[in-house]
Amino acid sequence: MDGRGLNRSAVAVLLSIGVMVGAYGVARCLVPDTTPARLALMLPGHGAVAIGPYLQRADAGHGARMVEQICGGCHAFRAGADDVAGPNLFGVVGRPVASVSGYAYSDALHHAGSGRVWTEQALSDWLSGPDRFAPGTRMSLNGLSDPALRADIIVYLRTLRQPQD
Ligand code: HEC
Description:
This is Cytochrome c. This protein is an all-alpha fold.
């Protein structure tokens, strides 16, 4: 093979690599990424995704890190710690809504939560859209749209209880 032949095959190789990369790029644009977890949330309704199945594969360790990042600025999580902007969340799973004595809840949360307990499902609904759960609430959080993330957070919150409970 002379020099020109070599050059031609080099060009051919480069061209085919280019075509492959290009085709991959085009395919990635054309074929949507179908992650089902998020689609469920776009369904009409009250965002009430059943959290049970997500809890079974939830990761409390990840929940703990996320809680520190997302909620830590406004909530305390240790028994007996003072309320911050929001009420202390130690033992929140299973406790009546808006029931930390001495914390001044909004009328919105009192109203929406009257007679209700923070079950795992109620927490999931709340975290997916606080303002939808209790319109006018003072908890200014946009809402966590990913049910897997909410489940991770809830299983972590579940660990925050006295040992004898
Ligand atoms: C910007 C501050 C802020 C952030 C961030 C925040 N919260 Fe809150 N949270 C509040 C406030 C304020 C209230 C009281 C709401 C009211 O009275 O309307 C509250 C109330 C709550 C309640 C009701 C507690 C009860 O005693 O009834 C729960 C549960 C809760 N937050 C969980 C969370 C979790 C979990 C996160 C993180 C994913 C979070 N919050 C992030 C400020 C915040």
